From TrEMBL, chain A:
Keyword Translocase: no
Similarity section: Belongs to the binding-protein-dependent transport system permease family.
Cell compartment(s), UniProt: Cell membrane
UniProt name for this protein: ABC transporter permease subunit
Domain ABC transmembrane type-1: 71-286
TrEMBL record, chain B:
Domain of life from the UniProt record: Bacteria
PROSITE patterns in alphabetical order: ABC_TM1
InterPro entries per UniProt: MetI-like (IPR000515), MetI-like_sf (IPR035906)
Transmembrane segments: 12-36, 82-100, 112-132, 144-164, 185-210, 263-280
Name recorded for this polypeptide: Carbohydrate ABC transporter permease
Amino acid sequence: MAHKRWAREMPLHLLVWTGLAFVLVFCYGPMVGIVIAFQRFLPTNGLFNSRWIGFDNFRQIAEMPDTTRVIFNTVYIAVMKMVAGLIAPITMALLLNEIAQKAFKRTVQTIIYLPHFLSWVILSGVLIDILSPNFGIVNDLLGSLGMPHVYFLGDEKWFPFVLVGTDVWKEFGFSTIVFLAALTGINPALYEAAVIDGASRWKQTLYITLPGIVPIMVLMATLSLGNVLNAGFDQVFNLYNPSVYSTGDILDTYVYRMGLQNFQFGVATAVGLFKSAVSFVLISVSYVLAYRFANYRIF
Amino acid sequence: MVQHRTIGRLLFVSANYLVLTVLALLCILPVVNVLAVSLSEGYYVGAGLVKLWPVGFTLKSYAFVAETPEFIRSVWISVERVALGGALNMLLTVIVAYPLSKEAGQLRLRTLYVWLFVFTMLFSGGLIPTYVVIRELHLLDTMWALVLPGAVPIFNVILLLNFFRSLPKELEEAAHIDGATYMQTLWRIIVPLSKPALATITLFTIVAHWNEWFNGLIYMNMPEKYPLASYLQTVIVQRDISLTTDPMMMERLADLNNRSVKAAQIFLGALPVFCVYPFLQRFFMSGIVMGSMKE
């Protein structure tokens, strides 16, 4: 009987295995490659013939002066992005929700979703141009308002905030989608009842709209927990330069430079492993929380 | 009291329209500025006179970019990558999502399979081990390095899986009773019914492959093999002009304003996304994007 069932389901298994083959080679293969973190890895010797050195790479990381700074930058930038990336779209969704004119609402939505689909290469090309201290349109504007020019991408004091600001600029529009969907799910009868009771629009927002989207707010906040060590490689890599390393260098960019530019494979893998492991714990915890409290499942 | 409330409301509504207009402009004006720069005469760009409208309209920068062999070559590599990578992504998304959309009772090991896929979203080997694997497989400097590692887009699989599950079960049962095999059911019933979802995912896949720049940068030792996104990354972000080798082109570049040329390249790099965008945008609200959010 069991045998027959296998035979009947075999076409389905074959389909899964086709996909699984790719995942095994390109996702699980690199997980085996994590052994590099415990080796003095030499590319010519390959994965298993390099010298094993135990935790020496990790010890070296702990002793490096850059480590604390990079971890601090990563968490600092990531947490600011998480908070701003939650507040901005919620506010935006509430404002859009108050617009009665469909055409205007649609137009605004169409425009603010756009930056999400442009890559950080394109956007940093745009940002490098408009934020330039010499000819950038932003500094032109500051100048005409009588304010001093700012070198946004070259000043270590400004850089983290430029990262947060431009990240919000890219994503706030697209992130409103989830909240707008939640807003349409609120029972209209609640508003009708509130109007009869004489509640103003502001009171309605405060006591019906906001509580109505609290579950999704909590859910999004929980799910974003996994990003505490994700400060956004694509963005930072395309916007930073050596003069802002002190405040803008993050774990991912550090791994890249250490590994693929200085060829310290072992140390770079160890830093990467640290990041992956911590992120894994955070993501797992956030999913468990999301499941417990919001009954959220990804599949 | 009632009067006061309506005035307040009116003020709020006007302010709201104003704020939203400003925010929408903030999203679009930087791109407009770059477009204006790309279409302006170098002299005016250099003098800082170009804001949101081209000054001394010219297509010189675009003509220059169109004649840069490195640019054109990388466009073709990107086109090839989008076609090959997109087709592979879509095929694998469909054939993986279909079995996984079954209940655990209909497919043995389903739960294990799902976890094997989902685990890769939670944990990864990291940059260096992935690079080493690609190197050991001798995929460096080949198109395969750009399309194989991400061949099964797990997130899209989950979207499509949820969509398949929302289709009426009776259709598939009826097909089975009529003697259809799993494959026939998938290609003749499930896939045709999922056209809107598949169209959305295809567009997302195309945009993702077009935009992806990092793999090209690290897996290609030779800049001649860079897709456009990686080429633009080196030229615009790293400001590396060593990729331009032809002395004639260097001379012309000196004559033009470098900023206009960069602006033209940025705009051309984003152009396919702008073209696909109206189609993409239609699907946002239709639920498929929310696929991962339901239950």
